[in-house]
Design goal:
By secondary structure, the protein is an all-beta fold. The protein has no helices and eleven strands. The strands form three sheets. It has a six-stranded antiparallel sheet with strand order 1-2-3-10-5-8, with no helix packed on it. Strands 7-6-9 form a three-stranded antiparallel sheet, with no helix packed on it. The chain has a two-stranded antiparallel sheet with strand order 4-11.
Length: 130
């Protein structure tokens, strides 16, 4: 059996890249698909109300580090619509194809968004979620 080297990735905060998302505004990409294809991590400081959207190729995990937010969700497969209110330390897993939108946010918040596999800008599909 051949020796396989495990991938070790170290990213420094100073190297994070600020990008504009068409649905969530300015996000700080901490770990990208180019760094590690299995997932990506973004930090969103002071997220506001977002545009409704969904993703076809990845699940998205929200971990709220600071503040409070409310997320409107719609699962077309179940024809179910509901709101989840997140407080500090809460985690919300949003499966692919589930429409979602931040509808309320405290003035100071910090959201960590983890995409599995990695986030791709072209997979942000706009939704008419209201």
């Amino acid at each position: 059996m051949k020796n396989q080297q495990k991938q070790i990735v170290v990213k420094r905060a100073k190297d994070a890249k600020i990008v504009e998302s068409q649905t969530c505004g300015s996000i700080s990409e901490v770990l990208t698909g180019l760094d590690y294809p299995h997932c990506s991590i973004a930090v969103v400081n002071n997220i506001g109300i977002t545009v409704g959207h969904f993703h076809e190729t990845f699940d998205e995990i929200y971990w709220l580090e600071k503040g409070e937010i409310s997320v409107l969700l719609y699962n077309p497969e179940l024809e179910k619509k509901w709101t989840e209110k997140l407080s500090v330390g809460d985690v919300l897993v949003i499966s692919k194809n589930v429409h979602h939108k931040v509808t309320k946010a405290s003035t100071k918040n910090k959201l960590i968004a983890i995409s599995v596999p990695a986030w791709k800008a072209e997979d942000e599909k706009i939704s008419d979620l209201k």
